[in-house]
């Protein structure tokens, strides 16, 4: 009966320990749209720069149409690039390193934007030379913009240890009643929820992983994957195979270590 009750509690919309996040206040659609704010801002700034320098021979255009052209093109690329990155993450969660996702995004965007630039340029007769010119110029822009976006949104591996007399981490206040006093082993992102792995079992709360990581300061730990935060004291063994690392925690839970975080964790002595 307790197991059934726990399952019902985990599936209901308002999970125990619900936090006042954008998702909780406004719904997943608003939270989804807000996630594009930073890429769009970076793209708009890049577009304005390209317009001001008259990139790719656009200097003959009047400044206002030129700004509209480059900013619009860069913002559209940022939105489509973000959608492609999310699709890659959903279909291949193992492709987590920027240098692996970047070429995939460029490969998808370059043909599409080559077509858009060709249409905007007056639909010149397609000869091998014209196709190569448009494709080469667009490849330069999409590669540069993709690199800029990945650098602007990349995650840093942050580890932190508790000061000798630090106050209890704020995150402990979010633990459901049945997990109070438990040792936190790991926090795993599941859609808009977090699954708590503790010494007293598991449960779900509604919170973003980025907010949880901030509130976990005071417990020595780090992100090992875009969907996982792990307490260092909970790690029992670490193994590597096929170029990947996996951490085994107390209780037998296995946690993946993605390439994006592996170097920082290795330098910190995790494995």
Summarize the structure.
The chain is α+β, with helices and mostly antiparallel strands and 271 residues long.
Question: How would you characterize this protein structure?
Answer:
By secondary structure, the chain is α+β, with helices and mostly antiparallel strands. The protein folds into two domains: 2-20 and 165-267, LytTr DNA-binding domain (OB fold (Dihydrolipoamide Acetyltransferase, E2P)), CATH 2.40.50; 35-153, no CATH class. 49% of the residues lie in helices and 17% in strands. The chain has helices at 2-11, 22-26, 28-34, 37-52, 63-91, 98-120, 128-153, 209-215, 259-267, and strands at 184-190, 193-198, 201-206, 221-225, 228-231, 235-241, 244-249, 254-257. The protein has a five-stranded antiparallel sheet. A hairpin with a 2-residue loop joins strand 1 (184-190) and strand 2. Helix 5 runs antiparallel to helix 6 (98-120). It starts with a helix and ends with a helix. Residues 1-27 have low confidence and may be disordered.
């Amino acid at each position: 009966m307790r197991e059934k009750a726990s399952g019902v509690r985990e599936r209901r919309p308002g999970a125990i320990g619900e936090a006042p996040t954008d998702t909780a206040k406004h719904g997943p659609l608003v939270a989804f749209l807000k996630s594009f704010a930073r890429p769009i801002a970076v793209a708009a700034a890049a577009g304005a720069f390209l317009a001001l320098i008259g990139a790719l021979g656009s200097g003959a255009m009047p400044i206002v149409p030129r700004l509209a052209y480059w900013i619009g093109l860069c913002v559209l690329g940022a939105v489509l690039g973000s959608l492609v990155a999310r699709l890659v993450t959903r279909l291949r969660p193992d492709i987590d390193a920027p240098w692996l996702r970047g070429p995939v995004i460029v490969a998808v965007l370059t043909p599409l934007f080559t077509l858009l630039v060709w249409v905007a340029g007056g639909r010149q007769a397609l000869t091998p030379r014209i196709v190569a010119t448009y494709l080469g110029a667009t490849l330069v822009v999409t590669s540069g913009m993709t690199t800029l976006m990945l650098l602007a949104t990349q995650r840093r591996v942050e580890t932190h240890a508790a000061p000798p007399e630090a106050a209890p981490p704020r995150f402990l206040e979010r633990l459901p009643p049945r997990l109070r006093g438990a040792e936190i082993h790991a926090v795993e992102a599941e859609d808009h929820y977090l699954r708590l792995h503790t010494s007293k079992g598991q449960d779900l709360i509604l919170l973003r992983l980025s907010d949880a990581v901030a509130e976990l300061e005071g417990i020595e730990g780090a992100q090992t994957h875009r969907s996982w935060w792990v307490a260092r004291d909970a790690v029992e063994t670490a193994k590597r195979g096929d170029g990947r690392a996996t951490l085994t925690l107390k209780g037998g839970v296995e946690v993946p270590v993605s390439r994006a975080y592996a170097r920082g964790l290795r330098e910190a002595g995790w494995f």
